[in-house]
Amino acid sequence: MSEDTRPTNITILDKEYLIACTEEEEAALQKSARYLDSKMREIRDRGNVVGADRIAVMAALNMAHDLLESKTDNDTLNHSMGDRIRSIQDKIEQALNRGKQLEF
Question: What is the CATH number of the domain that holds 53?
Answer without folding.
Answer: 3.30.160.880
